[in-house]
Amino acid sequence: MKQVLPGVLAVALMLGTGQVRAADPTLAEIRAQQLELHEKLAQGDASLAALSATERAQLQAAQERVFGILEGHSDADRLHPAQRTQLTNELERINALVQGDDRNRLVCKREKRTGSQRYVRVCKTVAERELELQNSQRLWDRTNVCNGGVGCSN
């Protein structure tokens, strides 16, 4: 199954950082790659046989979003930063579905830093985001423990 999308991860990483190098795929190549995957999915290609009906539906929905973003654009530099972030996330979602590995899927968000009006792109894997959530929950739980019975109600 790993043979299906050899360049999607590289494309997603390229779009995630905003860096374009001569060897990076163009939007036309991404479109062609997604059309090829769409055709393989429609034909019931053996490399995609492990996908459940739900995963197939998720894959098709992600591809529709990719095609929507690519529509009318021929150059990644012409995409709005929010579109570039969404395209990165959709390509990562497709790659995770095909590879069967969601925890290593990269998720990018555009965030404003405190004290700034500029947006920055913050990309982390699903596993990293889950770990941060667990750590913050542990910290919250630890700070809410009663201190020696003072202020505690039973």
Q: What does this 3D model show about the protein?
A:
This protein is mainly α. Helix content is 53%, strand content 9%. It has 5 helices and 2 strands. The protein has helices at residues 8-17, 27-43, 53-70, 81-99, 126-143; strands spanning 106-112, 119-125. The protein has a two-stranded antiparallel sheet with strand order 1-2. A hairpin with a 6-residue loop joins strand 1 and strand 2. The longest helix has 19 residues, at 81-99. The protein is flat, with a radius of gyration of 20 Å. The relative contact order is 0.13.
The pLDDT mean sits at 81
- End-to-end distance, in Å? 56 Å
Note the overall shape. flat
Which radius of gyration do the C-alpha atoms yield? 20 Å
Strand content bin: 5-15%
Number of helices: 5
Class from secondary-structure proportions: mainly alpha
Count of β-strands: 2
Order of helix and strand elements from N to C terminus: HHHHEEH
Question: In what order do the strands lie side by side in the largest sheet?
Answer: 1-2
Note the main sheet: 2 strands, antiparallel
Taking pLDDT < 50 over at least 5 consecutive residues as the criterion, the unreliable ranges are: 1-7, 9-22
Oligomer: single chain
Helicity, as a percent range: 40-55%
List the helices and strands and how they pair.
Layout: H1 8-17, H2 27-43, H3 53-70, H4 81-99, E1 106-112, E2 119-125, H5 126-143
Antiparallel strand pairs: 1-2
Helix pairs in contact: 1-4, 2-3, 3-4
Key terms for this structure?
154 residues, mainly alpha, two-stranded antiparallel sheet, 2 strands, 9% strand, flat
